[in-house]
Amino acid sequence: MKTRLIWRECSVCSNKDSLWVECTDEEVTAKILPFITDDVSDFLKTVSQNQGTNLLNNNPLDEIYTNFFMVSFDALIIKSYQWLMPYSGQWNAYCPFIQFEPIDFDSLADIKDIIINI
Prior knowledge:
Elements: E1 2-10, E2 16-23, H1 25-32, H2 40-50, E3 67-72, E4 78-81, E5 97-104, H3 111-117
Antiparallel strand pairs: 1-2, 1-5, 2-3, 3-4
């Protein structure tokens, strides 16, 4: 899993600091699904509808990341989005995301430490 964007007091995650998390299909199954407490089939349907390759980075190594989520610092809120959500024109002159150097991590349990250190 990888993150490179933070949204402080994220309005789509109950105003909690949240990270934009990029995952492979395997990571969704192994590392995201265990944290889902709602209907898993509905969650997976949304994930499949939102899958796609991030076209902005132009880095062939990033092409394996085809699933994108907003994840709150406590990993209690996990929402699937299309890759373009942070870059969308929906933000007009204000985009709430702050970019930092990409961080690879192994578990959603690591998110709290990542946010504290940014």
